[in-house]
Model the fold of this input.
Amino acid sequence: MTKIITLTANPAIDVSTTVGKIAPFTKLRCGPARHHPGGGGINVARVVKRLGGEVSAIYPAGGTAGGRLRHLIEQEGVHSLTVSTRDETREDFTVLEESTGHQYRFVLPGAALNEPEMRACLEQVAGIDPAPAFMVASGSVPPGMPEDFFARAADIAKQRGAKVIADTSGPPLKAVLARRIFMIKPNLSEFLELTGAMPTDDVSLVQAGRRFIHDGFVDMIALTRGPHGALLISRDQAWRADGLSIKPVSVVGAGDSFTGAMVWCLSRGETPDVALRYAVAAGSAALLSPGTELCRPEDVKRLESQVTVREIILPADGSRGST
Done:
């Protein structure tokens, strides 16, 4: 039974390669190209599958690139529910400059779905049988596409009893929050924009998150902070996971790996603190993989035992708490 579905509005084939040194007006001789399926929800589904979960990925695909995208996804054992589109699926590319270790990411705009194509994606959410326990709406929305696309999908998923997790930003995130969903996964800058907070420590972050929860937008917030770890905030509890000291090979896919491990754990009935530990391990493991490869299960398993999770206790009077 598929407990998890993911929804991607702006999929891509991610092409990654290396070059000795980037210089203008020069023919740059690159290393071999790697091709991986990309797009937020697709990446989340790839991680869930690698960790042993059952997942279906809903996404649009068009043209030759769309056919290759489907093939790459199915090669990883992820069940696809695709919607054929008139426009070609985009390709993004990532280049590692070997002389400096700098990574350059070139993200092309995707083509907006037309109304029948959007409706077909939403019908996939409505029609999957049995109804999933979780839906992850993740990634960007193409320019020109309605900002409430994920919000419409959230309405359908919630009506079917699914818990909705959103990992997007800007107007699409604000639109989906109007539906009151289960969880969001902002980074620190996105969190500050949403809450208007100016925190100075973990306690003030938790207090800002809890106010946002009490305002009725969301039940839980998974706040990622890069090398500083992550916080998981609910109405009544909060946890901090320390970051791991890792020299990154690539920074692509860390957030999607975090989300994939988080929803995989929750779908198994694990407690939130355990889910946070695995999520930070997966996000850290993604840093060890080249290009757009995402986390490897063996790295997640090895790093999970190294992640320290502590509960953050807030006093009833709202003063500084403890961990």
